[in-house]
């Protein structure tokens, strides 16, 4: 019988990034901590005192750890999870990818499996489904998810970026669960819209690679998913325009919403945040907010002794 504790830290992430629908995602420098207890010494999770978001995230992490154990040959190991974080569920911040990456990585660690990241990613993807969030959760940075045209497989590329940007987040106090917001997106698009988004994704990659951040406003200008999702979020475009009007390079709906993300020079981040707060208040929205960096690190085993040296 396995008896062990494993602590994993995993980041929130922002999928789609405007025009990169279902293929681009960015890790945030905003981590949650998961403590997994495997074996007979199970922690009391005290679910009655937890928020609904905490319960959902804990459940997803537990499910992923159990799935990982099963795939790796230990299906009967008892486990429990304690989650410490403040990310809301259903707000476009990749909480399911965060929890599932943590669970699978913890399962491999407790079994002593020297598994490659790609192997663990594939196990987590069986539960997650959203590669544009899961790749950043595993690898950090900005990731391009690429479906293989000759198989069901995926690969990814890490986009080059510099550490001179901040991510300003306005997180409204209502959720837009991805599965529900996807249902209103048309399955067929016209050629003009397809070309529009393809050209803007190319512009987005170039803007990061050459640090030509003045191109980001146009690069984020999506026509495939944001317009229809604005029907569920009437204040969305007002918030996007408020951010860019206050000096952000560009802004977009994070994942399926409801979070609005804006990329800004650090010197302008507070002004962008103030504009977003004012716009949200004018539209009667309750909200949280945060200024983050692009997260350079994916989920990892946390060792407090080595990290605090």
Provide structural commentary.
The protein is α+β, with helices and mostly antiparallel strands and 309 residues long. It contains eleven helices and ten strands. Strands 1, 2, 3, 4, 5 and 10 form a six-stranded antiparallel sheet that branches. Helix 2 crosses helix 3, helix 2 packs across helix 4 and helix 3 runs antiparallel to helix 4. It is globular and about 55 Å long.
Please tell me the total number of domains: 2
Distance between the termini: 33 Å
**Tally of strands:** 10
Based on Cα principal axes, name the global outline.
globular
> Structural class, from helix and strand content?
alpha+beta
CATH architecture name of the largest domain:
2-Layer Sandwich
> Which CATH first-tier class of the largest domain would you pick?
Alpha Beta
Beta-strand percentage range = 15-25%
Low-pLDDT windows of residues: none
Average pLDDT figure: 91
Rg over alpha carbons: 19 Å
